[in-house]
Amino acid sequence: MNMTHYMELLATGQPWNLILFMAIPVILAETVAITELGVLFTRRTDGTLRAVNKFASVTVGLYFTVVFVYLLFQVVIPLTAGGGWRGWVDVAAVSFYLLGIVPLLGLALLDMGLLQKGRPEAQRLKIHAYFVGIFLVVTHLAMIFGMLDPYLFSTVPVHMSHPM
């Protein structure tokens, strides 16, 4: 079976690529999601739970910004310029993964006070929860497309695949 570039990235350089591109961002984002539930349930924005939530939000947003820039210049642009994509499923998997920058950077900017400044705390919590939800959707779509054979729905011949 052929792999998408998304899965190939995670599978090569074991265990480092898996740790850098999946484990660190997912552990931090899941920490945000879990603590988010506690914050929303209690409406306490001054406790330890919110402090952990805020730390994880800022950290994952800044960390994923570095990952995004790295992958954009080291993978996406070269693959696009060289015609190395393995069909639309491959593009979708990588694109959904990289779309994680929108909610993750949004969380960081929100918690650093650079986004929605001056808004009531309830409004900021609502937007924070939306960003968490958006992240969950795009990452799950990346995983679903990433696990497919990239040529399953494509007319691109298999022999045209290029290693990452």
Automatic annotation (TrEMBL):
Keyword Iron: no
Signal peptide start-end: none
Cited InterPro entries: DUF6803
A Pfam family assignment: DUF6803
Sorted UniProt keywords: Membrane, Transmembrane, Transmembrane helix
Transmembrane region(s): 20-43, 55-76, 96-115, 127-148
Ranges in a coiled coil: none
Name of the protein in its database record: Permease
Originating species: Ectobacillus ponti
Lineage summary: Bacteria, Bacillati, Bacillota, Bacilli, Bacillales
